[in-house]
Every structure is written in C-alpha cells, then in structure tokens.
Amino acid sequence: MTVFKGSCLCGNVSYSVSRSPVQVVACHCALCRRMTGAPFSVYVVARRADVHVQQQNADLRQHQVTERTTRCFCGTCGTPLFNSNAEDYPGLSMIYLGTAEAPERNVPTMEIFCESKLPWVVLGTPCRSHARSPGEA
Questions:
Q1: Quick check: pTM over 0.85?
Q2: For residue 57, what pLDDT is reported?
Q3: Is residue 85 part of a domain?
C-alpha cells in the first residue's frame, strides 16, 4: 500500500512511501536554507525501508553535505528529494515535502533549530518547537 508518493520536477526520479511517516518537521537551520534556497525546509521523516525509489536513466545522485549528512537529488533537474544521516537518524530518510504529490496531507508537528529561525517566518500550524534538534543541549 502506498501512503504517499512524489517526484522531482522533471519526473525522472519518483518515490513512494508504504507506511505512515514518523514525523513531519520544519527545519530552520542554515544548512537547510542553503540546500533548498528557501527560508526553511519541511521534510517528512520516513523509515528508509518504506521508501521505494524509481528512476529513469539512473538519475538519482548523492552529495555528501557534511561528514554525516547525504543529500539525494535528481541529476537532470536538480530537485532535492531526500537527506539521510545514518549516524544521528539511523534507518530514516528525510523527504522534502515539496516533492510530494499532495503536500497538504503532511502537516509539520515539530519545528527545529528555531534559534536560527528568520524573524518573519510564522508557521500556520501549532507544533512543538526546539531551539536546536530534540535532545541537543
């Protein structure tokens, strides 16, 4: 069963997720801003085993963003699709909500790195807020 699906802009890389997400997160860190070109990112945290990627022309590419974080994107159109960090978030993928076919179905329940949040950003939904990542001091 597919819970949700999505794709890159050109359609060469698509995915489906077979179980409900673990969490939907709005991240205000500077790294997310740089990776997306947006004031913050929203991603759906899914179990990696539940994410099924289909690609044409072997277009899925990876970039090692930090020592622990890998970003996957379409090699043709450049759309960022998901990130992974096996050390801090083992077995999970962070799928960019903007790539989902029906993004309105996945509402953020948590926002993180609020210490870096731009002062004019206001989410239209109540959620738990953390100065950094949950569990960080």
A1: yes
A2: 75
A3: yes
